[in-house]
Amino acid sequence: MPTPHAGWSALRAAGPLRESEADTAEPRLVVILSLAGLPLGLVVDGVWCGPLGRTPLILPLIVRLADLEADWSMRRRVAALDGTMEVSSPAGGPTVIDVMLPCVW
Questions:
Q1: Band (104; pLDDT cuts 50, 70, 90)
Q2: Which residues contact 84 (CB under 8 A, 6 or more apart)?
């Protein structure tokens, strides 16, 4: 029979890092994306945005992929505890992440 403290350690494993993971992705993904995509993004987006006056393409894609990895990682850990996670990010507004973890023993 599990002790009450075993549940708390599981909640602590998924809970406290959710804010920091919302801001940063796994370091290895950031390194891979930066090494592979950043030089290309600087050249393509530099020409695309500068002389052509278009909106950037590559650099926002790198940022979005890093955000997705952080989101997936957090969702996996919350789901492992039978929790739910909702993300709301309206254009021009704040991003709100609601994580609900069960606390029934």
A1: low
A2: 78, 98, 99, 100
Q: Are 14 and 80 in contact (CB under 8 A)?
A: yes
Cβ neighbours, 10 Å, residue 69? 18
The residue ranges of every structural domain in the chain are 4-100
Between CA 66 and CA 60 the distance in angstroms is: 10
**What are the residues facing 96 on neighbouring strands?**
88
Report the sign of the C-alpha dihedral through residues 64, 89, 79, 25, in that order: positive
Interstrand relation of 84-88 and 96-100 (parallel, antiparallel or unpaired): antiparallel
- 9-39, pLDDT tens digit by residue? 555 555 554 545 544 445 566 666 666 666 6
C-alpha–C-alpha distance, residues 10 and 81, integer Å: 8
pTM over 0.90? The answer is no
Q: How far apart are CA 44 and CA 55, in angstroms?
A: 11
